[in-house]
Amino acid sequence: MKLLLSLLLVSTGVSAQSYNWNDSPYNWNNSQYNFQNSPYNWNNSQYNWNNSQYNWNSRNGIYDNDGNRQGYVVPNQNGTFNYFDNDGNRRGYMPYGR
């Protein structure tokens, strides 16, 4: 009985945490398998001149505190921002409304 009660308390404690679907990587809008988020999409590609580390006029670069370019950010049609490193690997995202 004590085991059942403790499992019930643990499971309700976990489910009581807030969960925002908009922030979830399982949400299709945030998924790396969504073509809008893929590095194979020309808008997200490192070979697109707008994203290139060699384009000194690029407005979407991400830089560290020493001024070294670490990657770039690209908004998609859903309003999510995708973060890529200079090699075109998707490193993260920021969901719409953040």
Mean pLDDT, to the nearest integer, reads 81
Principal-axes geometry comes out as globular
Radius of gyration computed on alpha carbons:
19 Å
How much β-strand is present in the residues?
15-25%
Number of helices: 1
Low-confidence stretches: 3-13
The H-and-E topology, N to C, reads as HEEEE
Spatial gap, N to C terminus? 44 Å
Helical residue percent?
A: 10-25%
How are the SSEs ordered, and which strands pair?
Elements (H helix, E strand, L loop, with lengths): L1 H14 L45 E3 L5 E7 L5 E5 L4 E5 L4
Antiparallel strand pairs: 1-2, 2-3, 3-4
Molecular structure report:
- The chain has a domain at 45-98.
- The longest helix has 14 residues, at 2-15.
- The protein has a four-stranded antiparallel beta sheet with strand order 1-2-3-4, with no helix packed on it.
- It is globular.
- The termini are far apart.
- It is an alpha+beta fold and 98 residues long.
- It contains one helix and four strands, in the order H-E-E-E-E.
- Strand 2 and strand 3 (81-85) form a beta hairpin.
Descriptive key words:
98 residues; alpha+beta; four-stranded antiparallel beta sheet
Brief summary of the model shown:
It is built from one helix and four strands. It has one helix at 2-15; strands at residues 61-63, 69-75, 81-85, 90-94. A hairpin with a 5-residue loop joins strand 1 and strand 2.
